[in-house]
UniProtKB/TrEMBL annotation:
InterPro entries registered for this protein in UniProt: AB_hydrolase_fold (IPR029058)
Keywords of the record: Membrane, Transmembrane, Transmembrane helix
Record's protein name: Integral membrane protein
Keyword Membrane carried by entry: yes
Transmembrane regions listed in the UniProt entry: 128-148, 193-210, 256-275, 287-310, 331-348, 363-383, 395-420, 440-460, 511-531, 558-575
Organism: Streptomyces violaceus (Streptomyces venezuelae)
Annotated spans, Disordered: 1-21, 221-240, 760-796
Coiled coil ranges: none
Amino acid sequence: MERAQEHVSTGGPDQPARRPGETGTALELLVHGVGGTTPQEMLNDPRTVRITGDNIAAVFRRADDVDAETSTDAHRRDGPVPEAYVWCNLTSGNGTRALWLLLLPFMVVNLAHWMRPTARGRRRTVRLYGLLVRLAGLTLTVLLVAAACEVALDLAAWQCAGTLACADRHSWLGFLSPTVSDGGWWSSPGRRLALAAFVPTAVTALLWYLSKRTWSDYESQQPIDRAPEPDEDGSPTALGRPGFWYGRRLVARLRAAHTAAGLITVAAAVVSAAARRDREPGGPAVLNILGLLLEAALAACAVAVVWVVCRRGRSENRLDRELDERFVRRLPLAALVLLGLALLYAGWERPGWESAGRLPGDMTFGGIALVQGLLVIVLAVVAHTLHRTDPDRRAVLRGLGGPAVAMLACALGGVMSGGVSQRVSDWLDGTGTSIDGPPVLLTWQASVIPPLIVVLLMLFGRLGRRAWQLARAEREAVARDYPVEAQDRARTRRIAYTRAMAALTDRGPRVVAVTSGVTLLLGAGALVGALTTDETPGEAAQGACPVVHGAAETAQALGSWLIGLGFILFVTWGRRAYKDAAARRTIGILWDVGTFWPRAAHPFAPPCYAERAVPDLTWRMATWTRTTGGRLVISGHSQGSVLAAAAAWQLAPSARKRVALLTYGSPLERLYGRWFPAHFGPAALSSLHREVDCWRNLYRLTDPIGGPMRLPGDRGHQVDHGPLLDPLAYGRTDSLPLPAPILGHSDYQADPAFAEERRKLLNRLRPDLPGPRHTGEPPCPGPDADPQGSSGRSSA
């Protein structure tokens, strides 16, 4: 694509304003939503030029508008100059990124960090909330590496290679088998474990590399470094703080800590088996002492890891470019040295040592599950305390959204780790009798999945019934919205059904609450059952009544297949995205929603695209308004409206007053305001309305994502346009002779209200500073200025 040089000065935002020609040029900065699009589609012109940016994210214009600021042609000033900010390659531009689905638990626990309730005067409690989420994220890293150790060290090297029947079926393990290899050098249990340890070590190294590489590619863009202005103190949201979108210091610290935790987990799995052998009567005294020293060193390193995770949270009040070198470099290096010593220790010759049963330390999964459950419970108590200080009736689950999502992240981690272990065990042990298989707890956890699915099916059944009731109620509303049309029962039913399904989005918190609560209870039951019986559910139920025994056997078998099927679906969906652009686009939409937030709780989560997109938009708006003195409307659709709001908050208050905001299909209040009340709650959105020159929001009742901003008092009427009619026409009209489609979340520009609201916003702005707000003119077009009438609904 043709690349044009910048025709407008892009100097720093603090440079003196230069307004060549005072042409009064108006700019509309378009920001697309989830899934992405092309600049040609956004600008409705096949000839587009990249004004600034790179192949990852860039700003485009029509070829005819490249020199709009310097041209004196009158026709160029009749309307705004449209620019398109295209950021879809940040999330869905490459098929390999679909494999980030495997990092889903890390992404979900990172979301829980940002879901804390709004709080006033509770700084220590807020810090405690963030600390608990970071510790939950650390347990997920340990769980993933422990699952890799279970597969490579326990199932493959310890159990299968140590059993003749299993080793015979898998020739690639023959050199590790004492019988098949006739006592070969690698057949010693310690050496088998040392060799297999390279698999979880490689997993840890890969996670470290991906985190470091994605930070350099996506999140290393620095926001505008500016001094705070007096009138921006006490902002109700942290999104306007200078260092909010630059978390380099925390991510580097967490990356070092999680990498060290992974290496320590591998070393502990190797050392525990050898140390237990050395502590047996008649064991070598020197090796016994070395084992004790190694275990003590690993425990000390683990304490250091926890301390680093707990020591510091995010630095948002300033742009923090410094790194904690002593932690970032020395901690992983120390863990790597301990791992090397552990491998040497385990590989030492121990005559007569044979592997039998499961690898020692199989209760690791039970300990992780117990710690995760306790963390979630304490997190719920902290979240409830925060919510009580400043109650928000729109916040999901009365402020407990974060703990519920953290519980889901732990459950996802358990499903993925257990699914891998179960399927590898079934693959290695074809007859089901040669090896003991994975730890008992993983089998119990798999067995609770069928009851969970039954509960969810009942819940979805109730939601379906509710949707049917809403659809019936909406039929009368559809008739009122199209009073002059001859009613078609099929058409009315289709519109009503679409509205009812869109309304189910507001029932999402109930689904999360039920899933999280049931998961916590069933997980606790599985943990108690595994600890008290040390048997699988089927074995533990022997001797009970036939119904109980049959249910236990069925749940165990079905759960094993379901947990494995879930993991296989993750892998196959990722592989499909390599060749299927539609699948890659779908996965990209998931990341558009899930990776908006910076990595504050888990460094191995997928990268935050907003740490690139928000500085891009902020720099573009700040430099353009200062160098041209022109008018600017930032127009955001769907997730693009969230980026637009975040970028507006990053502007200096003096620049923010020169910008108007147009949002449509926006989840700012419906999703972000409810799930992230501390950052997008009513106080934050109200402050944004006060600080920008003007803000108008468009939405439809058929849109499952977008909705009104619901600002209190008259501010709600000043921001929200009445719900747009969808479809634009009920039947065939002179202007729409063919049936109009139900647009839902897309094509808001097709509604005449879009162009009208954009025109009003541009008329509100001036080439120089905007007029005072205490004049008689309403600060934004309100209902009195609405040309569509009192209903607030547009028509064709």
